[in-house]
Amino acid sequence: MEAPGPRPAPALGGPGPLGEFLPPPECPVFEPSWEEFADPFAFIHKIRPIAEQTGICKVRPPPDWQPPFACDVDKLHFTPRIQRLNELEAQTRVKLNFLDQIAKYWELQGSTLKIPHVERKILDLFQLNKLVAEEGGFAVVCKDRKWTKIATKMGFAPGKAVGSHIRGHYERILNPYNLFLSGDSLRMVPTELVEKEFWRLVSTIEEDVTVEYGADIASKEFGSGFPVRDGKVKLSPEEEEYLDSGWNLNNMPVMEQSVLAHITADICGMKLPWLYVGMCFSSFCWHIEDHWSYSINYLHWGEPKTWYGVPGYAAEQLETVMKRLAPELFISQPDLLHQLVTIMNPNTLMTHEVPVYRTNQCAGEFVITFPRAYHSGFNQGFNFAEAVNFCTVDWLPLGRQCVEHYRLLHRYCVFSHDEMICKMASKADVLDVVVASTVQKDMAIMIEDEKALRETVRKLGVIDSERMDFELLPDDERQCVKCKTTCFMSAISCSCKPGLLVCLHHVKELCSCPSYKYKLRYRYTLDDLYPMMNALKLRAESYNEWALNVNEALEAKINKKKSLVSFKALIEESEMKKFPDNDLLRHLRLVTQDAEKCASVAQQLLNGKRQTRYRSGGGKSHNQLTVNELRQFVSQLHALPCVLSQTPLLKDLLNRVEDFQQHSQKLLSEEMPSAAELQDLLDVSFEFDVELPQLAEMRVRLEQAHWLEEVQQACLDPSSLTLDDMRRLIDLGVGLAPYSAVEKAMARLQELLTVSEHWDDKARSLLKARPRHSLNSLATVVKEIEEIPAYLPNGAALKDSVQRARDWLQDVEALQAGGRVPVLDTLIELVTRGRSIPVHLNSLPRLESLVAEVHVWKECAANTFLTENSSYSLLEVLCPRCDIGLLGLKRKQRKLKEPLPSGKKRSPRVESLSDLERALTESRETASAMATLGEARFREMEALQSLRQANEGKLLSPVQDVEMKVCLCQKAPAAPMIQCELCRDAFHTGCVAVPSIAQSPRIWLCPHCRRSEKPPLEKILPLLASLQRIRVRLPEGDALRYMIERTVNWQHRARQLLSSGNLQPTQERTGSGLLCGRRQAAAGQAPETSKLSQPPASTSFSLPGAWDGRTSYLHSPFSAGRSCIPLHGLSPEVSELLMEAQLLQVSLPEIQELYQMLLAKPSPAQQADRSSPVRPSSEKSDGCRGKRDGVSGLESKLKRRLEREGLSSERWDRVAKTRTPKKKRIKLSHRKDTNSFKLERARGHELVPSADAQSLPADASCSEHEDSGDEDAVCPAVSCLQPEGDEVDWVQCDGSCNRWFHQVCVGVCPETAEEEDYVCACCAAPGAPGRS
C-alpha cells in the first residue's frame, strides 16, 4: 500500500556514480488465464515462491476483466496552490470558473498555471478555447490552417504571425486539458524521463518543488472505486458480476482464505480499502505494511504509478543501511521507517547490496506486496488508485514475529494477534484444515509463552487474578503503558492506577506498589486453551486421515484399485471439510479428471459417435484416435489408479478393430472386390470412432466398384443406355482414382459414345433434311444404327419415322386397293400423318391435292348455299333439321312409324347434328349414309308436323290464353304480326324483318326456318358431278346427294299432283270467317302494311294478287300482318308436300306453281281440265308430240292466267321468249354418257329430273321450253362453259326432262345433233323416268 507523507524528507543517499538515476530491475509480471484468475488466493499462493523473492509483483487481469469505476468523484475535493486569478483579464463568472478548472488541472500535474502574453496583452484562454472548439477542434484547425483566422477573431492584427504563437500556447496549455476531459491519454513524456526527473528533484536542495497527494482516503466515507452492493452507481447486468469478484478489493480481505476475516473490527486500510488520488511526483516513502501483511493495489485510471520493492528477507538489511547512512534520524526517531516520511534513492540501496526491484503500474493493473517487503514509489501524473491489506495462512508466523518486533519498538498494534488466534480456534470445526493446522501450531507457541509468563508473574508474587473480556474494551484502553502492545491473553493492573494495564513482559513498569497488590487479568485459563488447541488438532488430523486414504487410493495395486466413484467421493469430502488445496488434492483432482476424460472418450468410442460428414466419405475428426492410439489408450486405462467400467468393453472394441483391419487388408488385396463386400466392411467401420487408414483406400475402391458395376449394368440393356448416361458415366469415371479396370471401361465407353454421337447427329441431320430423303436410304441408315448397342434419341426417332412411313404407305395402298370411295376424314388423317413423317412419300402430294380439291368443293358449296354471315354450317343446311320444336329438343323415345325398306338395318338413333355427322362419318357405304339421312328426314317431318299443328292450334284456339308466348321475344301476341309459312308460329313485325307493301306478296319464313339461299337445282347438280369426279366421300357430299334425291322425289310427287287436276284453290275450301271470333277484343287499327323492307329470309318468288286479299281473313293480332294457308283447309298430302317444299334448300318452279294453284281463283275451263285426267305419253313417237301439246296447253293456261292477273302481252312475250332457245330443237339419238351422275336411291323413292329454275313466272316444266334469247337461257350442264357470240348452238334432251343444253357444254357437234338423239346424264341414269 501507499503511505505518503505531507512532505518527503530529503533523500538519503544520491544517484549513481555519474549522478544519473539508474532504474532497478523489473519485478515479475503475471498474466493469469481466466481459470487461474477465478481464485485470487490460489493464484497468489501459486506465484508466492517467485514473487516473494522480489517483494513486489504486477498482475495483469485478462483483457475482458474491466470493472466499472464506481467512486463518487464529486465528493473528492482538492485545494492546490494556484496563482491569484485577479491578475487575469477575466470579467465574467464563466471565465473565472474555466480558468479555475485549468489551474486545478495543472496543479494536479505538478505545475503552476501562468497566463501567457501575446502582443503585450494577456491571452484570453477562455475565448481561445471557445473559438477552436467552434472551428472543429485542435486537429481540424491545424489541418485547415485556421490559426490566423482565430487570431483575427480575437482582435489581433493580421500579418504578424500571431496565429503560430496562439497555436503554441493552445497546444501547451489547453490541449492537454481537453484531452484529459475527453478521456484520451495525456502521456506525452516517457516514464523513464519522469522517473529520472523525480529522483533528481528529490536529491537536490536547490529546487523546492511542493506537491500534494490525496492518500489514505477512506472508501467507507467516499465510496470504493469497485462496485459494492447498495452502492450509488447503477450497474448493468453485465457489470453485476464484479460485485462478488475475489479481485474486488472490498471482498479480498474478508474472503474465507484471508485470516483477517476473523477480525470483527473494520480496520481502515486493512479490511476496508483506501483511495489514493495522485498527481505528478506525489510519492509514498519506504515502508512495510502493518503487521507485515500483504497488500494489493489497483490503479483504476490515470497516469502510471512507479513502484520500488525490496523482498522481505532483505528488510533488516535495508533498515541497517538506512541507519548507517542517517544514524542521527534513527536516534531521535527509532520507528522512523514506520512514519513514512523517509525516502532513499534505490540506487543508494543497490550500492549497499540491498536488492531493489521496480515496475510501472498502468491503469487496470494490480501490484501485490508480500509480507515485510519494503516498498516505495511515486505517481507519474494524475491518477486514481485503491489498496487494501490481506493475510493468508502462511502469514501467521510472521504476524506473531511482527508483534514481538512492535513491542521492541514500542509501536502500537492495529489489532491483537492473540485475539485473532483464539477466535479462529473457537471455530475449529469450520476452519480450513491447513489454517487449522497452522493456527494449532501458532496457538501452541502462544500457550507455551503465556504459561511461562504467568509462571514468572506468580513467582513475582502476583497471586490475585480475575477473568476479563479484553475484546470488549477499546484498543486504546487495553494497551500496555510501556510497549503499546494490545493486551488480550492477560495483563497486570494495580488499584493505585485504575485504567492502566501492562503486559506480562513489563510488570515492573506498572507502578511502585509491591507485587502482591497487583492483579492478574486473564481472558482464558490454561485449561480453557488446551481443548481449543485439541479441537484444531482434531480438525487437522481429519485431514491427515483423508490424505492417507488418498495416498492409498493413488498407490493401490491392480487387484485393489478403487473405482472412479471412490475418487470422486474423496474429492467431495475434501470440499465438504474444506481441506487445503495442496499438491495432494490437486494430484487427486488431476488423476480423477484424467480418469473422467478417459471414461468419456471410452464411452464415445463404444457408442461409435462418428459424425455424418465423416461417415459419408472423407476426413478425420480431430478427436479420432488411430488404432495405435487406441491400443495405447487401452493400456492407459489399465494404468489408471482407478478402475473404469468401460475398460473391458474398450478392450473388446480394440479386438474388433484389429479384426476389421485384417479383413480389410485381405479384401483390398483382391484384383477387383465387389462393391457389396466393400460396403459391408465400411458399414462395420461406422461402429468405430477410430481413425482407420484403410478407409480412404476402401472408399476409393468402393467408388470404382460402384462405377464399374453401373457401367456393366447400363451395357446389359442397350435400349436404355442413352448418350447422357454415357456422358454421366464418363464424367464420373474421370473423377475416379486411376485403376486398370476403370481405364479399360472408360476407353470402351468413350469409343461407344463417339460412335453413338456420330450416328445420332447423322440421324438428326437426316430428320431435318430438306428435301426429305427416300424411305430406302433412311431404312439403310436405321439398319446401321440398330447395330450400335446404345439408345440414340435421333436414331430412335429416325427408326420410328421409317416405320411410320411404311405404315402410312400400307394404309394408302389398302385405301387404293379397297375399291371404295375414300372418306374425307381418312384422307385428312393420312395427309396429317404424312406431313409429320420426315420421309419423302410419293403419294403424299396426290393426297394433299385431293384434300385441297375437297376443301375447294366445300367452299364452293358453302358459297352456293349459305347466306351472308350465316350462323349455320354447310352440313347443317344440307342435312334434315334436328332442332325443330320440342320434339327436336326433348322428344320421348318411340319407334318410327315408317317401315324401313326390306333388307336394311335400322340406323343409329340421331338426336342432334353432331350425332348425324358422326353417323355419316362412320358409315362405310353410301347406302347406309342415305338410310341415316332418311331417318333424319322422317324425324324432321314428324317434328315439324307436330310443331306446325301446335302453333296453328295455339293461334286458332277459341279459348283466350293469357300466358301464350309467341315470336322471338317470347311475349304475348300484339298487332301487327306475321306468320311463318313453315313452322306456323306468329312473330311481331317489330321483332323480325317483313316484306314491304311495295314488293309483291311472297312466302315468308321466319329466321329459324330460313336457313340458306335456296339455289336452283341447276347450280347444285354441278357440285355433285364435281364431287363424283373427285371420288371422295364426306358428310356434306352424302347430305348433298340425299338432298338432290329428296328434291327430285319431291318434284316427282309435285308434278303428279299438279298433273292430276285434284289441286283446288283454298278459297273453295275455306270460308272468310275461319279465324273469326278469336281475340276480337284485342283488335286494333294498324297501318295496312309494314314499312320494313323485304328481309333476306323471305322466299324470293311472287304470288298472285289474290294473296293480298287473304288479309281479309285475318283478325287481330294479324290485322295488319300476314297469315299462311290454313292447315285444316288442305289435304294431308298437299300439306306435307307444301311443308317439305319449304324444307328443301332448293328453289323449284313447282313450289311456286303449287302456291299459285292453291291461291288462284279457278275458271270453269280450268275446273274442266282439272277434272279430266292427263293422257300419259309412253311411246317415243307420240311422246314428242304429246309433250308439244302439253306445252301448248300449259302455255295457253299460263297466258290466260297472266291476262286474268292483268299482265300485258309484252310481259307474256318476254316470258315466252325466255322459255326456249332460238335454235331449232335437234333430236339426238340415245347414247351413253360416261360423266353421268349415279344418284343412289334412298327410302324407296326414285330420282326424278329436276325442274327449271324457280325464277320463271309460270308453272311450265322444262319439257315445255320454247325458243328464247341466248342471254336469258340457262344451260343445266354440270360444267357450263357459258359460250358467247352472236349464235350459240343448243340441243334438247330426248329423254324425259326435255331440257336444252349448249352443244359445246355436253360435247355434241352440230352434225351429230342433227343425225342422232341426245339423252342428258340425268335421264340416262338407271331408274330415271322415261329411260328405256
TrEMBL record:
Keywords: Acetylation, Biological rhythms, Chromatin regulator, Dioxygenase, Iron, Isopeptide bond, Metal-binding, Nucleus, Oxidoreductase, Phosphoprotein, Repeat, Repressor, Transcription, Transcription regulation, Ubl conjugation, Zinc, Zinc-finger. One of its GO terms (cellular component) is chromatin. Residues 1177-1190, 1202-1216 have a biased composition (Basic and acidic residues). It catalyses: N(6),N(6),N(6)-trimethyl-L-lysyl(4)-[histone H3] + 3 2-oxoglutarate + 3 O2 = L-lysyl(4)-[histone H3] + 3 formaldehyde + 3 succinate + 3 CO2. PROSITE patterns: ARID, JMJC, JMJN, ZF_PHD_1, ZF_PHD_2. It comes from the Eukaryota. PANTHER family: LYSINE-SPECIFIC DEMETHYLASE, LYSINE-SPECIFIC DEMETHYLASE 5B. Residues 1087-1101 have a biased composition (Polar residues). This is Lysine-specific demethylase 5B. Residues 964-1012, 1272-1326 form the PHD-type domain. CDD domains: ARID_KDM5B (cd16874), PHD2_KDM5B (cd15607), PHD3_KDM5B (cd15687). Residues 1217-1230 have a biased composition (Basic residues). The keyword Zinc applies. Residues 241-407 form the JmjC domain. It is found in: Nucleus. GO terms for biological process: negative regulation of DNA-templated transcription; rhythmic process. Its EC number is 1.14.11.67. GO terms for molecular function: DNA binding; histone H3K4me/H3K4me2/H3K4me3 demethylase activity; zinc ion binding. Belongs to the JARID1 histone demethylase family. It holds the Pfam family ARID. Residues 1078-1101, 1162-1231 are annotated as: Disordered. It comes from Tursiops truncatus (Atlantic bottle-nosed dolphin). Its cofactor is Fe(2+).
